[in-house]
Amino acid sequence: MAVPTQPYGSWPSPIDAGLAASLDGRPEYVGTVGSEVWWTEPRPREAGRRTLVRRRTVDGRPETTELPAPWNVRSRFTEYGGLPWAGAERESGGPLLVFVHFTDQRLYAYEPDAPGGPRARPLTPVSRVGGGLRWADPVLRGGEVWCVLEEFTGPAPTDVRRVLAAVPLDGSAGEDRSAVRELTDDRHRFGTGPRISPDGRYAAWLAWDHPRMPWDGTELKLAGITEDGRLTGARTVLGGPEEAVAQADWTAGGSLLAVSDRGGWWNPYRVDRETGEAVNLCPREEEFGGALWKPGLRWLAPLEDGLVAVLHGQGSSVLGVLDPDSGDLVDASGPWTAWQPALAVSGTRVYGVAASPRSGYEVVELDTATGHARVVGARAADPVDPSYYPEPQSRTFPGPDNREIHAHVYPPHHPACRAAADELPPYVVWAHGGPTDHVPPVLDLHIAYFTSRGIGVVEVNYGGSTGYGRAYRERLREQWGVVDVEDCAAVARALAAEGTADPARLAIRGGSAGGWTAAASLASTDLYACAAIIYPVLDLLGFAEETHDLESRYVDGLAGPPQTLPVICRERSPVARADRITSPFVLLQGLDDPVCPPSQAERLLAALRGRSVPHAYVAFEGEGHGFRRAETMVRALEAELSLYAQVFGIDRADVPRLALHD
Hints:
Shape: globular
Number of helices: 10
Oligomer: single chain
Radius of gyration: 25 Å
Strand order of the largest sheet: 30-31-33-32-34-35-36-37
Helix content: 10-25%
Low-confidence stretches: none
Mean pLDDT: 96
Structural class: alpha+beta
């Protein structure tokens, strides 16, 4: 039977915005407590909270339970959060967990098997005005929780100090801040939580300072632990201003492992505790680590038998098991092609979060004794016929100065629709956030929402992205708004030149740093017919002054030092170049965003006032940096589709019409 032809963009699809929103997000922060596996999961339909999920074996059968509402297991440490929980087996039986509750940012102790039913009790005091407390990356040690503490000392986002701290499990710090023991001073601006050696004699952690970001340079700190639980003799054993250590951990035998990019790629090293001598355990032009946006990310996890579970690859990461003595590396079998830095181990088993182009992120177990891998949690179900899913094509494109650009192309795809042979499809360039980050080719129903309707998507890992070595990452140094804009444009032009995309129906979209790239592209070129700009950076000077502490000096590396920033701002910021923007756009903004505050969007709108540029501003109460609520994501997706339909001349009556104003 002949497949009927319908114009690109007008195809019907069972993947509606509500479905895409309901399955948004992924499991994170996998950990083990004895033989049990725990992790956090998103709940978009429950106001975007994250729950803590437990998987255990009861009477020989697997059973999962979750922390009920209103608990929301998420830290606001440096605004992006970090590992929000830890657990251990109690001597009396059953697990004891500690977690951060998002609403009040207090640490709580949680006993799921307590007599009389599960109970949670606060361990830290309520944050007071001018002295907000945040906690992340905890580990249980004796009668205390060791973690990293962030304390706000004034009204400005940069009035903050961070130290390693010990919180008593007896609850005595619940009302009294002085009961919290500070283990380090605040000499370093940023740091992770401690990793304690198996014999309990040493603690290792990462630290760095402004203006560096953690992928520029970090220090691996090592200290002894005294009998009364204090740190002594802290010193740097690896890293520095131009060497980024992404993770440290201990083997069961007491060897210190670290992931460092000292050779141009994040590789695993064994570090001598006394001399700091570092031996590369698997020298490859591959990444065994990534950008440390949040403390508690794990790209490697030592097993009890001396082997080490690692994530590695170029672009996407796969799971492998490394023999640190021989350097042999064997990859796990299975359909998963991209793994998140959330490894955990128990006995011979490795746990992580993985996805593929045909399945979303799920919790996977690898038994290293048998080589068998299986899904054990957050199983990715197929809410619609998988024949509606797009098939990504990972490609490289030539860019300016003969540089390679990595991208994933998602052509329009529908099992029962096609367009006329002489019609080319519209395409949307997706610029990822970060910008020091990357996107792997995995199933994303937000992408399928568009491709199943006949609109192509191309995700661009522009220069500056992680996953391709330090040199690729540093292409963006002092070139933000130039290299990212040029690389996205080069990919779009290449798709048009080869007849893949309609050159008259190209769009660009992005969130956060990707929102900057989308807006800067509209101000730099007439290539795009429209744009979706989502919680963006739009004004470099304003961003440096208004954003949170972690990124308050980020623009030093991205654009230039403070003394040159006013000039760079005038040359590149969309707010300063608003007179060059002529294409329609939709601007989507969370009103509670501490990273890219609404003032960024408001300044762009003010700069456009009086000019005939069709646009819409859609703001969301209660949303921060990254939309989490299902109703927000539905509105955002439908607004974006309506923009494309109007600009590309597509007839779609299944979404509310977005009102565009001059």
